[in-house]
Amino acid sequence: MTDLPADLRLRLSQEFSFSCFEVTGHQTAKDQTEKLLLKLKDSELVECVLMRDPGRRTVCISTQVGCAMGCVFCASGLLGVKRNLTASEIYEQVLVLHRLMKDDEQITNIVVMGIGEPLANYRNLMDALEVLTSDEGFGLGARRITVSTVGLPEKIREFAQSGKQFNLAVSLHAPNDSLRTEIVPVNRNIGIDEILAAADDYFEQTGRRISYEYVLLSGINDQPHHAAELADRLRGRNAHVNLIPMNGVSELVMTAPGEPDTEHFRSVLEQRGITATVRKRKGADIDAACGQLRLNREQQVELDQRLMS
Ligand code: SAH
Fold this sequence. Notes:
The chain is of the alpha/beta class. The chain has one domain (20-218, 246-253, 287-308): TIM Barrel, CATH 3.20.20.70. It has helices at 6-15, 87-100, 122-133, 153-160, 177-183, 192-206, 224-234, 259-271, 292-308; strands at residues 21-28, 34-40, 45-53, 56-60, 64-66, 81-84, 109-112, 145-149, 167-171, 210-216, 239-245, 275-278. The strands form 2 sheets. A 10-stranded mixed sheet has the order 1-2-3-4-7-8-9-10-11-12, sandwiched between helices. Strands 5-6 form a two-stranded antiparallel ribbon. Strand 7, helix 3 (122-133) and strand 8 (145-149) form a beta-alpha-beta unit. Helix 2 (87-100) packs across helix 3 and helix 4 runs parallel beside helix 6. The longest helix is centred in the last third of the chain and has 17 residues, at 292-308. The termini are far apart. The structure holds S-adenosyl-L-homocysteine (SAH). S-adenosyl-L-homocysteine (SAH) binds at residues 69, 71, 73-74, 113, 117, 148-150, 171, 213, 215, 244, 246-247, 249, 289-290.
């Protein structure tokens, strides 16, 4: 901008930044999934992902640095939570992924399924979603945006009042409270009934069918009797179950069941009247599971620091 005075240009270059992060890692998988590792102004790291399907471009974004929920199979929570992302740190992930795409591509869907618990950073999430949906902003329809939550009932009820038709995905992962509390420790103070009641409320307010996510962990929650119990629990609800065979995390011993057990679990749900799909794995040859890229980088930093001291 040579029409600005030189000293102002100098100050702008030193003090102003268009972006609230720097891309510090970029991986492209064989299936053209792209994953970015972002370094924020305070050097914290988060991840975001672009997934390509025929006629569909979905971006997956993070809402916190780390996560406090402590789900036992998830890489994002292994180091706890550091802080909430600001609204601009949330929506800018969409913009930076948008810039990676070819001219004839456009983002069709956003899933808030990256690092963090979105409803634990509710205000900043809502500010970001406002920018992403408003006509002066990114202009995407609320129905194309899915927020995934561990299941915080009060926040789900607040979210139901947004006046917009965002999709809600609830991470259930178990059909009863004792098993769920083992897998998702925050369940201890919440309980499945409370979560289902809040999700029912969400459906009533918005008319959007709820998705229940269920990570399949071999030998833990993947047996046919778990599927039958889950179907009984969800009966009568306008619900869809999204089965996610666990993505391996090198620090953890849990694994996904094989394909036959996964299919059997799905068929038990279907026989009992609950529609279910198995989530396709994307970006399997890059650090695929949630939060892994950040975790690997953080561990590298810790290791480097130890070697230097
Ligand atoms: N905090 C939100 C978003 C988490 S990420 C939530 O709990 O929903 C989105 C989904 O991926 C959640 O269902 C989460 O439980 C699941 N997930 C996390 N780690 C995973 C792993 N290693 N393998 C498969 N799914 C995983």
